[in-house]
Amino acid sequence: MCAEELLREIPSSPSVWGEQTVDADMPQGLFDGFEGYRTPSDEDYHHALANGLVVPDTNVLLNVYRYNAEAQNDLFAIFDTVGDRLWVPHQVLAEFWRNREAAIRDPQVKAEQTSVDLQDQCKRALQLVRAWANRIALPDDRLTAMQGSIARAFDELVGSIRNFVDVDAIEMARNTNSDPVLRRLEPLLRGQVGMQPNVEDLAQMVKEGLRRVEMGVPPGYKDKAKEGDAAAGDFLVWGQVLREAKKRRKPVLFVTGDVKEDWWRRVGGEIRGPRPELVSEMWRIAGVPLFMMQPKRLMQLAVQALHVQVQAGSLEDVARIDSLQVNPEPSELIPRSISEQVLSELFREADEINWESLTGREKSAQYDRWVESPLIGGALNRYLPSDRIRPWLKDGPMKEYLRAREGIGKFAAYMPRQYIRADDLVRQAMGPGWRIIDESLGDKPGHCHITDGSMQRYVCWGWSANFRQLIWSAVEDHSDGTGSPVVIVTLREGEPISPEEQQSQLEIGDRFGFQVIHLVRPLLPAP
């Protein structure tokens, strides 16, 4: 039977939580046709786990690699007790094998990402201390000692993080012959995995999955940003579960860490159960109820329903992983390839519209457009709830936009054009004999300390619109024993400052004893 024929089969609606169908002419009750809004009782869940078809999602199998040994053992004990009622859709296993090595290497990748971020923070800390030291004329030997302490502390922290990663265990797990997780899973899943759909059947299911994504029909429409047939992945899982449930006529307990809205019904942000559409479809196609839960709830329920002993530490560890999937850091949700595509497009558009020159209202409107953009908001919506996309843009890459323009920070690589480097700007303004003092470069506004070998001076730069901020920065950082501060008012090519404004700024500089320089700062293709 092809997928379309399966999905067209609509038995008459059964009674609430029962497994017998009801004649179409029989009067209906309060929950008939609205089973998805009924709150299941503890007895309902116990019956589903003790007698129903237990179906783990891909993320459940992959998260085994993220659990500690105690949690792994307890989950395997539950699977073992469920026995031949444990069933894995073929699509789940296909996704498991595609993502298995990434899950194994996840601790190593996270450690490296954290190490890189800490090293960036170390540089920032050294710059801040250097700026403070120059402000109070701290002796060089004391500054060197303080910077050394900071660098050693960060190095020790990075080393500790990297030492937590068992590289040998990761390499052992990557080998399917020595992977301890596979050794436990293989006998548990032997004979419990659905058959691969034939070519025609698969093509029909993919077609239906893509139609649902386009029409916003659950499950899977949150995968719209995925490329090609991958967007139909969730429906392939669902369609295979429907088919197996119809064949076995048992209640279905779907265990998943996926918390997206195309699987779950939410009220006020709180998960209340499966989407009513999914519950209704399960009744129509298979004539059985659908239950869904996260792995922690499965472990809690197994103690009573299956009489499996579950350790408190296992519950804590599984809850830790569940919480990461409920409220994960955006950087952990978004695959690197998608993040890179989004950031490249985001900075390309920001460069094109001259982001720095926009007013607050114009920037707010642009954020709205980015959230709705298929290439930006659409791509992120697969991995982030709609209400988290704007904060991700605003508090992440766009907060670092000016630093990226300067070639500073982790987002600089995505900037299509950057301003000439700070050392080139200094030489252009002050002459070839001046250079930036090591570790003194900072931002908000851009600033540094420079020397010609005999004198030190504080330099800051920024747009004419931020002239007050530049003056205040120079006032704060001016200290005895150094030359007068330099304020560089940077101008965009083709956007000259008016003679009156330029003269006013020069006069203000004179009153403070600061040197004010107006300079066109060109944008060049990023290296």
What does this structure look like?
Helix content is 54%, strand content 10%. By secondary structure, the protein is an alpha/beta fold. It has a 5-stranded mixed sheet, sandwiched between helices. Strands 1-2-5 form a 3-stranded parallel sheet, sandwiched between helices. The protein is elongated and about 90 Å long. The two termini are 57 Å apart. Residues 1-22 have low confidence and may be disordered.
The N- and C-terminal alpha carbons lie at a distance of 57 Å
Strand percentage lies at 5-15%
Integer-rounded radius of gyration: 30 Å
Residues in helices, as a percent range:
40-55%
Question: Main beta sheet, described?
Answer: 5 strands, mixed
Q: What is the compact description of this entry?
A:
This protein has helices spanning about 5-10, 40-50, 60-65, 70-80, 90-135, 140-165, 165-175, 180-190, 200-215, 235-250, 275-285, 295-305, 310-325, 330-335, 335-350, 360-370, 375-380, 385-395, 400-405, 420-430, 465-475, 500-510; strands at about 55, 250-255, 265, 270-275, 290-295, 415-420, 435, 445-450, 455-465, 485-490, 515-520, 525. With about 525 residues, the protein is an alpha/beta fold.
